Amino acid sequence: MSVYTTTITGDKTLFPVLLSNGNCVESGDLEGGRHYVKYVDPWKKPSYLFAVVAGQLVSLDDEFVTCSGKTVTLRVWVRDGDLHKCGHAMAALKNAMKWDEDQYAREYDLDIFQILCVNDFNMGAMENKSLNVFNSKYVLASPETATDSDYNGISGVIAHEYFHNYSGNRVTCRSWFELTLKEGLTVFRDQCSAAEGPGAWTPPVVKRISDVTRLRSSQFPQDAGPMAHPIRPESYVEINNFYTATVYEKGACVVRMARTLLGKEGFRRGAELYFERHDGQAVTCDDWMKALVDANPHGPDMSQFMLWYSQAGTPTLTVGTTYDTSAGTLTLNVEQTVPATPGQPTKEPMHIPLAVGLIGPDGSAVPVDVEGTPAADTVVLSVRKHKESFVLRGVPDGTVPSLLRDFSAPVKLVREGGVDRLTTAFLMANDTDDFNRWEAAQTLGMDVILEYVSAREADASASFAPLSDGVIEAFRKTLRDERTDPSLRARVMVLPDEGYVAEQVTVADPLLIHEARDSVKKQLATALRADLEAVAAASAAATAGEYKIDPVSQGARALKNVCLQYLAALGESATLDKCLDTVRNGSNMTDVLAALGVLSNSPDCPQREAALSEFYSKWKDDYLVMVSWLRIQAMASRPTTLSAVKALMKHEAFDINNPNNVYAVVGGFAMANPVGFHSPPNGEAYVWLADVVLQLDKKNPQVAARMVSAFTRWRKYDATRQGVMKAQLERMRGTKGLSNDVFEICDKSVAA
C-alpha cells in the first residue's frame, strides 16, 4: 500500500477534464494548448484502486457536510446530454455518506468525492479511491427512462462503492483469496443501508426477500455445481472468475450471521474496532473475525463459525417436531448435513444460527422459552452438531413453529414429513415474521409445481390436477389483505422462479417445469380474476399522477403489475390491448416495461409486434432503454426465441463490444430464459452459445467467462442435453488460444 501523488497533462481541447484519486492541489495551463492537474491522495492504498480519467465530460456538483462539519465537494461526471439523469445518483451518494457516519462512525476522509459514468464497463462499478468508475446503468435515471428497479439498483451500487472507502480501501485484502473480506462485508453494508438507511426505497422485509431470491437463484446452484468454492477460496486459475455470488452474496450472509450471533451492538463494536485497528493495512478474514471476538469478550464462541469461510456447499437443516401434551413442551429435532463439493468430500458440522418463533392456534405470537435464553417472540438457536434437539417450554397445543426467520442462515430448510399444505397456508396468513409469510407462499407454490412435474414424469399424458380451494384461498387472502404492505403482497404473489424449481429435482426438464408453473399461474388467475382486477384498479389509482419512487408508490406499482401478469396469463385480447396502450402512453418506464414484458412473452399477436416496433422507434436513441428492449426480447419464454436472439445480434441496437448489450441478449437468453435456451431439441442453442463465447473470448474474456456459467450445471439435465452441453464445453476447452477465464470454467465443469 502506498501514498500517491499524480500529475496528469493533456490537450486542453481533447481532454478538458483530468481526474485522479485524492484532492486536487494544483492545476494550470501549459504551452501548446495543454494543461495539467496535480492530485494528492494522503491515504495509503493498493495499486488496484489507482485511477486516471481524461475526456470531454460535464459534472453535476453538490456538497456534503460531514459529522465534524467538514464540507466535501461531490461531483458526478457524465457525457454532455446526460446531466439531467444524475440527480438520483447524487442523492444516493449523500444518503450513503450519512449512513456510514450513523451506523459505523465512518466520516469521509477527503475534500472531494467523484463518480465517473461510462457505457462500456464489464462490472457494475469500481471503488477506485475517491474516484469511483461506474457503468452508466448504475448512475443515469429519469422517470421516463428508468424503472423502479433501476432506481433501486443505482441506490444500492452507489452505496456499495462508497462503503468500500473503508471496507476495502482504508482496510484492504492481503491477497485475492481474501476477496470476501471486502466484498462480503460491503454487500452486507449496502443491503442494510437499502433496507434501513436514509432514502430506503422498500420495506426491510422486501429488500431481504430480494436478496434471498438472488442468493437462491445464483449462489445456491453455484454451491451445488462444479464451480463450488468456499467464500474464501483456496486456489484459482483466474481471479476474475471468483467475483462470484459465493464470495459476494454468501459472503454477505456470513457477515449477517455474525451480527445475528453477536447482536447489533456487539457487531458494531467489532466493526469499529476492525476499522480502527487495521486502518491502512492489508489484512485477512481472520483479522476481521478476531476484531469481532475481541470486541465481545463475553460473546459466543465463534471458532466453529469460521468453517463458513473454508467449507463450500449449502447446508441442509432437517427439522422434526415432537409435542408433549402433559409437559406443554415442543421439541425441535434438528439434523444438519453439508454436501460434498469438488475437493471437499467430507465436511464438519457448521455453526448455524436458527431463528425460531411460535405461532399459536389463534394466529398470535407465542413467546419462545428455551433453557439458557430469555423468552422472546424470536429466539436464535445455535445449531452446532450433526444432530441435536431443543426443548421449547410453555407451548400451547396446536402451536406451529416458524423456522429460519428472516432467513437467519444460507441453508436449505426441510421439514420432516414433507410439506403440510394446511400448516403452510396457516403460516402464510398468520406468521408474525413477514419473511416467513413470503417463504410459506414459496413453499406452497413449489409443492404444487413439483407435484405437477412428478405426475407428468410418471405419466406423460397426465393432466394437472386442479388447485385445491385451500391453496387458492391462501393466495386470495394475501392478495386482498390491505393491512399488508403492497410490495410484500406483490412478492408473495410471485411463484417460485423456474430455475429455483429446477434445483429441487434430480433431473430437470425445463420445459415441463415451465408448463407446470404456468398451469398454476393460469389457475390462480382464473380463480382470482375479480380480486386481481380490483386490486390492480386500486393500485393504479394509488399511483396516478406524478411519478414517485417512495416505498408506497413502488409497492403499489409492483402489486399492480403482478396483477397484470396474472391477468395476461388468461390470454385475452382486452388485456393485451391494455398493455399496448400502456407501452404507448404510460407515464413511467416501470409500467411501460412491465406491459412490454407481458406482450413480449405472449404468443404472436398484433399487439406484440406493434409494441416492440413502436417502443424501438420512440427510444432508439437512448442507450440504456435500448438495453432493456434487447433484454426483454431475449428473455421471452417462447420456443422460437433463439431465432429472435440471432436477429437481435444483427440489429443496429446491438454491439457485441458493449458488455451491457451482451449481458442483455446473450446472458438474458442463456441464463434467464429456460424455455428459450432449452427448447431446440437438437441442442442448437447450446452450440450457438459456445460459438458466441469463443467469439467474445477474443474480445473480452471476462464477459465470455460469465456466459459459460450457463453450462456449469449440465449434469442437471437429461442424457441428450448433457451430451450436447458437455461436447460444447470440451470444444471450448480445446480451442487454441483460449483465455484462462473461459478455460477454468470449462475445465472444472467437464471434470465435475
Question: Mind explaining what this structure looks like?
Answer:
The protein has 27 helices and 22 strands. The chain starts with a strand and ends with a helix. The protein folds into five domains: 1-145, Zincin-like, CATH 3.30.2010; 170-311, Neutral Protease, domain 2 (Orthogonal Bundle); 316-413, Aminopeptidase N, middle-beta domain (Immunoglobulin-like, Sandwich), CATH 2.60.40; 419-570, Peptidase M1, alanyl aminopeptidase, C-terminal domain (Zincin-like fold); 621-751, Zincin-like fold (Alpha Horseshoe), CATH 1.25.50.10. The mean pLDDT is 96. The longest helix has 25 residues, at 434-458. It has 752 residues and is α+β, with helices and mostly antiparallel strands. The radius of gyration is 26 Å and the shape is globular. The strands form six sheets. A six-stranded mixed β-sheet has the order 18-17-20-14-13-22, with no helix packed on it. 48% of the residues are buried.
Task: Walk me through the topology.
Layout: E1 2-11, E2 17-20, E3 23-30, E4 34-45, E5 52-55, E6 58-65, E7 71-78, H1 87-104, E8 112-118, E9 125-126, E10 131-135, H2 148-163, E11 171-173, H3 179-196, H4 204-223, H5 245-262, H6 264-277, E12 281-283, H7 285-294, H8 307-310, E13 316-324, E14 329-337, E15 352-359, E16 365-366, E17 368-370, E18 373-376, E19 379-383, E20 387-393, E21 400-403, E22 412-415, H9 421-430, H10 434-458, H11 469-480, H12 486-493, H13 498-502, H14 510-527, H15 529-542, H16 551-568, H17 573-585, H18 589-600, H19 606-619, H20 623-634, H21 641-648, H22 659-672, H23 674-678, H24 684-697, H25 701-708, H26 719-733, H27 740-751
Parallel strand pairs: 7-8, 8-10, 11-12, 13-22
Antiparallel strand pairs: 1-4, 2-5, 3-4, 6-7, 9-10, 13-14, 14-20, 15-16, 15-19, 15-21, 17-18, 17-20
